[in-house]
Amino acid sequence: MLQTRTPPGAAAYSRSLTPRQMEAQVFSRVVRRLREAERPADRARAGADARRLWSAVFDLVSEPANQLPAPLRAQIASLALAVQRECDGETPDLGFVADVTDEIARGLWG
Questions:
Q1: How far apart are CA 3 and CA 71, in angstroms?
Q2: What span, in angstroms and rounded, lies between the C-alpha atoms of 61 and 31?
Q3: What is the DSSP track for 19-68?
Q4: What pLDDT score was predicted for residue 110?
Q5: pLDDT of residue 2
Q6: pLDDT (0 to 100) of residue 4
Q7: Which residues are CB-contacts of 60 (< 8 A; sequence separation ≥ 6)?
Q8: How far apart are CA 45 and CA 36, in angstroms?
Q9: Inter-residue contact 31 to 8 (CB < 8 Å)
Q10: pTM to 2 decimals?
Q11: pLDDT on residue 12
Q12: Which 3 state secondary structure label does DSSP give 78?
């Protein structure tokens, strides 16, 4: 079994982030993959990662126990569905997906 080693300082860095900043990191990683994907296989993988992220977002804001205001939850759910539809398309516009995902990441960092 392969073991991964955490680089020195990485664990301390992760502990210093707020939950919101950790969420921002996830969005930022997906944006980076989307923007760097050049080969068809990389583009497909990046699109699938974005699809999974936005599917999770939709599921979270659809939970009745979610404490965000209902209008905001509805807006985020609508955005998540739009991104998922784009990711599911025959030739998804990964630039659009990256831009939307990046805007959410920026909001979470802010």
A1: 44
A2: 21
A3: HHHHHHHHHHHHHHHHHH--SHHHHHHHHHHHHHHHHHHHHHHHSTT--S
A4: 84
A5: 44
A6: 47
A7: 66
A8: 11
A9: no
A10: 0.84
A11: 54
A12: helix
Neighbouring C-alpha atoms within 13 Å toward the C-beta of 18: 6
At 16 the pLDDT is 85
Are 30 and 104 contacting, i.e. CB atoms less than 8 angstroms apart?
no
pLDDT along the chain (110 residues), means of 10: 50 74 96 97 97 98 95 97 96 97 94
Counting every residue written for the chain, the total comes to: 110
Report the candidate in 16, 10, 26 with the shortest Cα–Cα distance to residue 108.
26
Q: CA 67, 68, 72 angle in degrees (round to 5)? A: 155
Cβ atoms of residues 34 and 54 within 8 Å: no
Of the chain, the end-to-end C-alpha distance in Å amounts to 39
